[in-house]
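Example 9 (inverse folding). The structure is encoded as follows.
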């Protein structure tokens, strides 16, 4: 498999998860879904990458647990958000993580964003305006709560990206991933007593979503990313990853019959254009990050 095709496959897998999860949430509580998804993923990650996971490294374990806190918040907000928005919109709003990263970096360095970042923010702002045309009049629409929760999830994912850069333990991607996954599973399990789980169903749709998200999306797709991304130019990899909301919209249409309106498509195109500007401006972000972390 060519490296660029491997990354495209991983991105398409992530794009399909939005539709599968939303379908499963008709029968299963979102917190329980997150718990089962990551409880299933953890042993598979350990089994599949057993030669690369070093459980005895306490420093990497602590970093993985800390990263898992942000990951837990992100996946919990994203999954609950799917109860209140469409799968396609969830994919679009999750992709705001790409925008939040340079914004948080600028805040941490106490300087205003500049260059391509400002252009990207303008495009994303226009895109969000088209996705929520009634917002200025106070009419947020039926998906407002889900869109808001998913935006917070994107912010949590951005925090996780920055923590990955700042904390020690680089070169231990597989070990970090195992501890991240395990932390999410444990935290979700501790959250279950606060949920009403009296009426849950475990039909084929639920098991398909759990197996796909737990094994393919969380373990296999990440393995493809870790294995092949070093062989792909950063600019090409960036463009591939910004295809995730596109795949989310296509699969939402094919799997759930959810179609974006022309206005939503226009907003999505503008938002994705902003993401491409951010990702293709990666050299500036890398320099900014290096100054911050030096």
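The amino acid assigned to each position is listed next.
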């Amino acid at each position: 498999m060519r490296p660029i095709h491997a990354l495209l496959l991983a991105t398409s897998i992530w794009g399909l998860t939005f539709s599968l999860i939303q379908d499963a949430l008709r029968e299963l509580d979102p917190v329980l879904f997150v718990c089962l998804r990551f409880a299933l993923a953890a042993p598979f990650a350990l089994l599949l990458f057993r030669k690369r996971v070093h459980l005895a490294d306490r420093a990497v374990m602590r970093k993985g647990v800390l990263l898992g806190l942000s990951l837990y918040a992100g996946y919990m907000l994203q999954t609950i958000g799917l109860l209140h928005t469409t799968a396609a919109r969830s994919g679009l709003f999750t992709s705001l993580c790409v925008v939040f990263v340079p914004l948080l970096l600028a805040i941490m360095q106490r300087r205003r964003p500049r260059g391509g970042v400002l252009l990207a923010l303008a495009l994303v702002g226009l895109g969000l305006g088209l996705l929520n045309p009634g917002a200025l009049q106070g009419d947020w629409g039926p998906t407002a709560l889900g869109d808001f929760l998913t935006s917070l999830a994107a912010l949590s994912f951005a925090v996780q990206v920055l923590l990955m850069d700042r904390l020690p333990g680089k070169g231990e991607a597989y070990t970090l991933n195992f501890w991240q996954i395990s932390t999410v599973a444990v935290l979700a399990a501790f959250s279950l007593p606060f949920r009403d789980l009296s009426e849950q169903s475990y039909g084929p749709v639920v098991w398909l979503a759990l197996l796909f998200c737990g094994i393919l999306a969380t373990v296999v797709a990440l393995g493809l990313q870790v294995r092949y991304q070093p062989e792909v130019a950063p600019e090409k990899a960036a463009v591939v990853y910004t295809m995730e909301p596109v795949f989310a919209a296509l699969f939402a249409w094919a799997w759930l019959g959810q179609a974006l309106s022309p206005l939503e498509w226009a907003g999505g195109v503008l938002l994705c254009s902003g993401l491409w500007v951010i990702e293709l401006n990666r050299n500036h972000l890398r320099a900014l990050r290096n100054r911050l972390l030096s």
